[in-house]
Amino acid sequence: MKKRIAMVLICALAGTSMIACGKKTEPINTDNTQATEQVQPAEENKESDKDPVSTSAPDISFASVKVEGYDYYVGEAQCLQITDDKHPELKVAVDEYFDGVVKVFNTGVEEMNEQAKQQNDEMGDSENTIKYSENITIDIKRRDNKLLSFVLNDYTFMGGAHGGGSYTGVNFDVATGKQITLDDLGDSEAIRQTSKQYILDTIANSSEQARGNLYSDDIIDYKQVIEELFSNGNQPEFYLDTVGITFIFQQYDIAPYAAGTISVTVPYSQYEGINDRYTPLPDSNYAFQLSNAGIDSRIDFNGDGQLDTISVINTWDEEADKNYVVLRVNGEDLKNETGNGSWYTGYFIHNDQGNFVLLANDGISMDLYDVSKGIKAKSHMDTTLSVKEVTESGITLGEYTYNENNIVWSNEQQIGFDFK
After folding, report:
1. Residue-range definition of the domain harbouring residue 36
2. Which of 202, 206, 307, 353 has the fewest CB atoms lying closer than 10 Å?
3. What SS3 string covers the chain?
């Protein structure tokens, strides 16, 4: 039996108060800049005479819409709101964007519920009802006085062994509310060609184990796919972070599902004539997750004009019949034996104290290494918690459970890099 969708569209435009796509929450701090911090614009900005430049990062909060009352479907869409009065154009643009997200989200509800009903009818198992689900979440990538960049993760489960996600990169000019395209960054075709070659070269120079995670046969070859994705005026989804332009390859594009979502960041320094309106302020602090597939990240984290190379590789030595995690920094390897089935996720942190890599084996342990000059052990912690977020200033840990295919966090704790 059909039931109504218990949700409210977020659709507040200029001149009206925010209805919100859920209960309005207090402003929160996310990525690189504190919400109340005043950030001065760069001294020289070629676009400053043409367009305004904001002096502060926007305050933000999250809300959500939920689908309730269906027998075979559940869903939730997270939305972003601008909560200060200093960025009116951005506020309108973000409201309009998420109004569109929620409208599209709504249109698929009836169809997915009906498909799930048909699948359950065919299975004839009344004790094990399958519910389809869709969950849209937001991952903030950059928030400063120039840009608000984030990734929408649209995860859908329609039966089977697992669901699947699609990723959309979204980039807003903080001062004008304009949604940024490659044309706003410079010569878009030159950017595509530079990006494509950089990505191919980075993968080619990554470890054999990393390349082994990608498609490379007569049916699908990652090199050919990358060539095609950057052809005919197109490119993969992208976002602008503090390091460069990060291109996202969707699941199954260049690797099997088990390899996870693969993205590669091309540093701003690799582009000629890129619009400095959108490049970050000098000496900005940042943190990001390293490739789960072991592909190299190349960044100038020592400020000497040369790209440093860093990767984390989970590998199995067939001869020794043992699992290892390898931290590789500028050709130097730190190799540690791990337990059977263990998996380490790597995070790079650049802050005022130096350059660090966090290796996290969720629910078991964490290790922090100083990689400014070589690889030096700094901190160790045994923990039953998992890493929810890593920023340039600390780590958020917590416990997570799956509630109808949606991750729910609890028992959250913030700790510093001294693990206290």
Report:
1. 1-179
2. 353
3. CCCCCCCCCCCCCCCCCCCCCCCCCCCECCCCCCCCCECCCCCCCCCCCCCCCCCECCCEEEEEEEECCCCCEEEEEEEEEECCCCCHHHHHHHHHHHHHHHHHHHHCHHHHHHHHHHHHHHHCCCCCCCCEEEEEEEEEEEECCCEEEEEEEEEEECCCCCCEEEEEEEEEECCCCCECCHHHCCCHHHHHHHHHHHHHHHHHHCCHHHHCCCCECCCCEHHHHHHHHCCCCCCCEEEECCCEEEEEECCCCCCCHHHCCEEEEEEHHHCCCCCCCCCCCCCCCEEEECCCCCCCEEECCCCCCCCEEEEEEEEEECCCCEEEEEEEECCEEEEEEECCCCCCEEEEEEECCEEEEEEEECCCEEEEEECCCCCEEEEEEECCCEEEEECCCCEEEEEEEEECCEEEEEEEEEECCCCC
**Does residue 297 belong to any structural domain of this protein?**
no
Is 41 inside a domain boundary?
A: yes
pLDDT band at 227 (very low <50, low <70, confident <90, very high): very high
Is the pLDDT assigned to residue 20 strictly greater than 80?
no
The predicted model gives 62-90 an average pLDDT of: 94
The count of structural domains within the chain is 1
Please check whether residue 79 lies inside any domain of the structure: yes
Q: Is residue 146 part of a domain?
A: yes
* CATH assignment of the domain containing 156: 3.30.565.40
Residue 261 confidence (pLDDT) above 90: no
